[in-house]
């Protein structure tokens, strides 16, 4: 793979709680004032080699990764506040953890966003591009990326979506089935089937930037974007950061399946008070998230594989907007299982988490590994990044089933890094 030389630009769509927590943490870590806890690329070790030749190495000792010192930040947002003001407003981090890097954060001023309020009706920002068509959005975003590269001197840029969930856009093969059809729809200003996020993805890939979808939007989950990624030889990954409840679900459901216990029902509910919670309070936006969160369990506990254990179980997911909690999300899971001779049991999990604290290291890892994948010549859907994502991309046109099992995803992650580092992939997914 090509070495990680020079500066790596990180252009984030959305300068809200997740983004400012990520940026502040990186800037603080550079100064030795904080630790990037939760980041696999900064802490995890992988075995390479076997027998007497085996050793456990950090990712950066296996493949060439950009260092934290080489990251340069940019952003788009519908609100004009700079990263410092936005970090204070988000109320995720204490002021004492923001002030040491205040000047660096103040220098990160968001570009005007490509935005359509019909896709996020609860947001009403003024820092919005005056584009009259979807194609104009694409061209304006491409120019933003070119200008950012010229201004910062970055020779590589990764674009990642950390903005709000858009309303659900069903896949329509007439528009989303081919790249030509997608481009025609953009030029015809199809505002119903072309979401603003699709304009960001198209612009990023066209400017030779890997693109990562951190929300459950349909954006890159369409054949047209797969075709563009293949054409531009760029990696794409998505969708939806795997932070709180789904992280628990993708890790705990395998316990039930591996132990051959039965499942009667799994009820998940959340309370959340940040901007994401406000947007998801709109039913049309929540439906996009619901599709993402529901898909996890169904690919781990499969009725066709164990009909005695997983036929007709009830799975419900709820998210409730509750302003007093702000970014401190609480997720409850009630799991009804059954065991020997069908006798019922219950498991209850209460996860009081900090959404942006869990998401920030995911942003870092996805950016660094997508950049590494691009330099290693990997393009198209990066399935090895499913470990970090709630509803992994997959080729549903070929009836591919996504891997949602956390520990199988971890095997995929380790093997991809081994292969990029010139080692043998030696753990198979059964």
CATH architecture of the largest domain: 3-Layer(aba) Sandwich
CATH class category label of the largest domain: Alpha Beta
Please trace the helix and strand order, writing H or E for each element: EHHEEHEHHEHEHHHEHEHEHHHEEEHEH
* Helix-strand category: alpha/beta
Total discrete domains: 2
Strand order of the largest sheet: 5-4-1-6-7-8-13
Name the helicity range.
Answer: 25-40%
Number of helices: 16
In CATH, the topology of the largest domain is named Rossmann fold
Low-confidence stretches: none
Radius of gyration equals: 21 Å
**Global geometry:** globular
SS strand fraction: 15-25%
Count all strands and give the number. 13
Please tell me the overall pLDDT: 94
The CATH superfamily of the largest domain turns out to be NAD(P)-binding Rossmann-like Domain
Taking the sheet with the most strands, its summary is: 7 strands, parallel
Q: State the separation between the terminal residues, measured CA to CA.
A: 29 Å
GO molecular function, one term: inositol-3-phosphate synthase activity
Organism: Alloprevotella rava F0323
Domain Myo-inositol-1-phosphate synthase GAPDH-like: 244-356
Protein name: Myo-inositol-1-phosphate synthase GAPDH-like domain-containing protein
């Amino acid at each position: 793979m090509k070495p990680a030389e020079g500066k790596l630009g990180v252009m984030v769509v959305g300068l809200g709680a997740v983004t400012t927590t990520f940026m502040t943490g990186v800037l603080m870590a550079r100064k030795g004032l904080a630790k990037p806890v939760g980041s696999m690329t900064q802490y995890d070790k992988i075995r390479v080699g076997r027998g007497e030749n085996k050793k456990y190495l950090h990712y950066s000792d296996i493949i060439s990764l950009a260092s934290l010192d080489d990251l340069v930040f940019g952003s788009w947002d519908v609100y004009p506040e700079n990263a410092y003001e936005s970090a204070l407003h988000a109320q995720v981090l204490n002021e004492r953890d923001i002030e040491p890097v205040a000047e660096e954060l103040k220098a990160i001023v968001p570009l005007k966003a490509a935005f359509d309020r019909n896709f996020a009706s609860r947001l009403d920002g003024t820092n919005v591009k005056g584009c009259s068509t979807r194609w104009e959005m694409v061209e304006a975003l491409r120019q933003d990326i070119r200008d950012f590269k010229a201004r910062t001197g970055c020779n590589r840029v990764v674009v990642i979506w950390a903005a709000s969930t858009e309303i659900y856009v069903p896949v329509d093969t007439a528009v989303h089935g081919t790249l030509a059809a997608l481009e025609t729809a953009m030029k015809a200003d199809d505002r119903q089937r072309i979401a603003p996020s699709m304009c960001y993805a198209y612009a990023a890939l066209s400017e030779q930037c890997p693109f990562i979808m951190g929300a459950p939007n349909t954006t890159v989950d369409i054949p047209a974007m797969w075709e563009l990624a293949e054409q531009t030889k760029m990696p794409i990954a998505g969708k939806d950061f795997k932070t709180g409840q789904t992280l628990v679900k993708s890790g705990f459901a395998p316990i039930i399946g591996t132990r051959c216990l039965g499942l009667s029902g799994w009820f998940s509910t959340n309370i959340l008070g940040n901007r994401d919670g406000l947007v998801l309070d709109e039913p049309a936006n929540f439906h996009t998230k619901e599709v993402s969160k529901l898909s996890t369990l169904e690919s781990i506990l499969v009725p066709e594989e164990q009909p005695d254990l997983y036929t007709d179980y009830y799975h419900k997911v709820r998210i409730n907007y509750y302003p007093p909690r702000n970014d401190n999300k609480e997720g409850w899971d009630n799991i009804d299982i059954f065991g020997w001779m069908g006798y019922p049991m219950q498991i209850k999990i209460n996860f009081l988490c900090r959404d942006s604290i869990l998401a920030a290291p995911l942003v870092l890892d996805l950016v660094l590994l997508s950049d590494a994948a691009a330099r290693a010549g990997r393009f198209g859907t990066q399935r090895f990044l499913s470990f970090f994502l709630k509803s992994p991309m997959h080729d549903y046109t070929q009836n591919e089933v996504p891997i949602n099992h956390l520990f199988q995803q971890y095997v995929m992650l380790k093997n991809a890094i081994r292969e990029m580092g010139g080692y043998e992939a030696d753990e198979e997914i059964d």
